[in-house]
Design brief:
- The complex is a heterodimer of chains A (498) and B (209).
- With 498 residues, chain A is of the alpha+beta class.
- Chain A folds into three domains: 327 residues, Neuraminidase; 58 residues, Tetratricopeptide repeat domain (Serine Threonine Protein Phosphatase 5, Tetratricopeptide repeat), CATH 1.25.40.10; 34 residues.
- Chain A has nine helices and 29 strands.
- In chain A, strand 10 and strand 11 form a beta hairpin.
- Chain A starts with a helix and ends with a helix.
- Chain B has one domain.
- In chain B, helix 3 packs parallel to helix 6 and helix 7 crosses helix 8.
- The longest helix of chain B is centred in the last third of the chain and has 45 residues.
- Chain B is globular.
- The interface between A and B is small, with 10 and 8 residues.
């Protein structure tokens, strides 16, 4: 009787714990479904795999919710660019309102509004300020597009200098300089994307002199297009589209002075370049030979087609993030060109966009600017996202063993994560545990390193069992020799008998 | 059946693989060949092909195991085998080929065997090779396939009593014939399905009236 009761009790607890577990997993799923988008990645076979959410939208910030000196600052009008300064303030180019709005780190308060400055005693203002950037010295660079100049200000708004009227033989006589996006490297060289400037990024020296173009994108003409061009008449050719390079769309600079610049690649292969000081592209394209956003872009619908990357932000430790305006997605890559996570989408909910134009990052926070909705959206890394960020950062610094602990936690959340499996496998390989290295490298689909691990494992097995193998071979040889001798003898005897 | 699988047939099968010119000649002129063995060899080839895709080591194998269906592959190989044999038969009938249909089946079936062996050996080998030894794996498969191609070529040549040049021409025409057969089959399938749809719609029209 007592036994039966105990049995019943244990059954009950088991049932209860099952309920609790189901409940827990249910809440977990609900939490994951809070984001109005899927978080996914592409695996080694370029198949789409859904992953846990890497970033979640926290809130959106519109202009009319913000106050400066007690008054609402009113809605932003087609804002085009944002930039973080070293002290954590966010500078926003409120293009349609001809002003620069400075928000504090939490984006709760307006620290400053710069709409005019003192230009040699004359009050001067902006006209469609399109891009903003803060230099390492803390100076503010504004691409004042319709005034055809770049304005350099101190943080308090006093004028440092104005960069305008670039003069060069390579520029047409009637060239009108319309700067759109701007960034500054450690030596205060200005890199500027100008409207209708297909030759590349315009570079200005520290003194404001135009020094030349940078990172020109080569025009790619297919053989087929060449063929048509050849057989077309002059008249037909004049009516055809010109083969001109695509313009750059977004620009950022890393601590070493390498320029990250995005462009719209209709082939969807390379939408971002990492330009060294000589203007050569040195980006690594990773396993898939692709840094162009989505890999699955086929179809006939309005929604199909290659990603249109409009902005890039270099975060740290080689991680950079791209913003796609075609499908409103955010792609994050590491310094080897591996995709880390993809999220975001078009829509009207919090966390989706209408016309995303600019992206900035501060630690594990991403801020996206939507020009049409005139809003900032703040994303924070989830546990999954920050684990990946941390692991990549550790690996970038060479601390593979420390990264392993992070990768293990990533695997608990997403057991098919190839980067995590490969990371653990490589650490095992370094530690000399070839068998485990093989297991994880295979799960990570890294044939190259698996092969190295396998060779070491095989040679180890051979070396360990060499005595058995040699003994076995000797025994077999002796056995064969004896067998042949005996048979010959028997046959010989048989022959004698016959 | 028993005599088709008899010990003599098997030993002659082995002889043919090592002495193809002689072997295929007597397959045509004496009843030394065996159609069941030939078909068995085709089935084994298909199995070895699927095995290679499934079980070759990760070092050399990029196939997604989820995409391997050995039954579909078997059906595909058998259909292709049948198409090639029928195509070759129809061409060689018009081009003074001496071979009967069963001779063609035997020539192709026997001839394909080294490829099977190549795949099996390569699959086994792949389990023990590492990165820079991949060339050996490719070499084993290449040798197997090359030997198989030579055997099939010689087989077709001998059973029809052709010269090498004529064999190559007929093989090209066989390829064309296979395409024509596929085209006709698709056309027939399409037309028949249209006829069926037609009668089906008449039937539906009648019962809904």
């Amino acid at each position: 009787m007592r036994k039966k009761f105990l049995h019943g009790l244990s059954k009950l607890t088991a049932l209860l714990s099952v309920f609790v577990l189901v409940g827990m997993s249910f809440t977990a799923r609900v939490a994951a479904a809070d984001e109005p988008y899927d978080t996914y990645n592409y695996d080694d076979r370029e198949d789409l795999t859904y992953t846990p959410s890497a970033y979640e939208p926290i809130r959106s910030i519109a202009g009319n919710g913000l106050k400066y000196k007690g008054e609402s600052i009113g809605n932003f009008v087609t804002p085009q660019d944002i930039c973080y300064s070293d002290d954590g303030n966010l500078y926003l180019a409120d293009t349609g309102n001809n002003r620069i709005v400075v928000l504090n780190n939490g984006m709760t308060e307006v620290v400053n509004i710069i709409d005019s400055f003192d230009n040699n005693g004359v009050k001067d203002s902006f006209k469609s300020p399109y891009g903003v950037c803060i230099s390492e010295k803390g100076q503010l660079y504004v691409a004042d597009s319709q005034n055809h100049r770049i304005v350099v200000l101190e943080k308090d708004g006093t004028l440092v200098r104005i960069v305008e009227n670039p003069v060069s033989q390579s520029l047409d006589a009637g060239y009108v300089f319309v700067p759109l996006k701007v960034t500054v490297d450690y030596a205060d060289r200005i890199y500027c994307i100008a409207q209708n400037m297909f030759e590349g990024i315009m570079v200005f020296e520290t003194n404001g002199e135009f020094s030349g173009f940078f990172g020109t994108i080569d025009v790619k003409i297919t053989l087929w297009e060449k063929f048509w061009k050849r057989i077309a008449t002059k008249e037909e050719r004049s009516k055809q589209q010109l083969y001109i390079p695509t313009e750059f769309t977004g620009i950022d600079v890393d601590a070493d002075g390498f320029i990250y610049a995005t462009n719209i690649d209709s082939a969807g292969v390379q939408a971002v370049r990492r330009l060294n000081p000589r203007g050569e592209d040195v980006i690594k394209k990773g396993e898939n030979k692709n840094v162009g956003g989505d890999l699955w872009v086929n179809g006939q619908s309005q929604y199909a087609g290659a990603s249109q990357i409009t902005d890039v932000v270099y975060r740290n430790k080689g991680i950079y993030t791209l913003l796609d305006r075609k499908r409103g997605r955010i792609f994050t890559y590491d310094h080897e060109g591996n995709l880390l996570y993809i999220f975001g989408g078009l829509g009207t909910q919090l966390g989706t966009f209408n016309t995303p134009v600019a992206i900035e990052a501060s630690g594990d926070t991403l801020v996206v600017l939507d020009a049409y909705r005139a809003e900032l959206t703040v994303f924070n890394a989830t546990q999954y996202g920050s684990l990946i960020n941390d692991a990549i950062a550790l690996r970038y610094d060479g601390d593979e063993t420390l990264a392993v602990e992070k990768w293990r936690e990533v695997l608990r959340l997403d057991e098919n994560n190839e980067l995590a499996n490969t990371g653990i496998g490589k650490a095992y390989l370094t530690a000399g545990d070839n068998k485990n290295a093989m297991k994880y490298l295979k799960l990570g689909m890294d044939a190259e390193y698996y092969s190295i691990a396998f060779r070491r494992y095989r040679n180890q097995v051979l070396a360990d069992n060499l005595s058995y193998i040699l003994t076995g071979a000797a025994v077999i040889i002796i056995a064969v020799v004896v067998f042949v001798r005996v048979r010959n003898k028997k046959h010989g005897k048989g022959g004698e008998k016959a | 059946m028993k005599e088709l699988f008899s010990k003599e047939k098997w030993s002659y099968f082995g002889y043919t693989l090592t002495h193809p010119m002689d072997g295929f000649y007597w397959i045509r002129h004496k009843e030394y060949g065996s159609v069941p063995i030939a078909i068995l060899m085709v089935i084994l080839f298909s199995i070895s092909f699927s095995l290679n895709r499934l079980y070759a080591s990760f070092v050399v194998n990029e196939t997604d195991p989820r995409s391997v269906n050995s039954l579909t592959e078997l059906a595909g190989v058998l259909v292709l085998f049948l198409l090639v044999c029928v195509g070759n038969w129809s061409i060689t009938c018009l081009m003074d080929g001496e071979g009967r249909f069963k001779d063609i089946i035997i020539a192709v079936g026997y001839g394909i065997t080294p490829a099977t062996v190549g795949y099996v050996l390569a699959t086994l080998l792949s389990r023990v090779i590492a990165d820079n030894e991949q060339a050996f794996y490719g070499l084993v498969i290449a040798i197997g396939i090359a030997y198989a191609v030579i055997l099939v070529l010689m087989g077709i040549m001998q059973v029809h009593n052709y010269t090498l040049g004529k064999t190559l021409i007929t093989l090209f025409l066989t390829f064309v014939a296979v395409l024509i057969i596929i085209f006709l089959a698709l056309l027939l399938f399409n037309l028949v399905s249209q006829v069926i749809t037609f009668f089906k719609s008449i039937y539906l029209e009648l019962i809904f009236r």
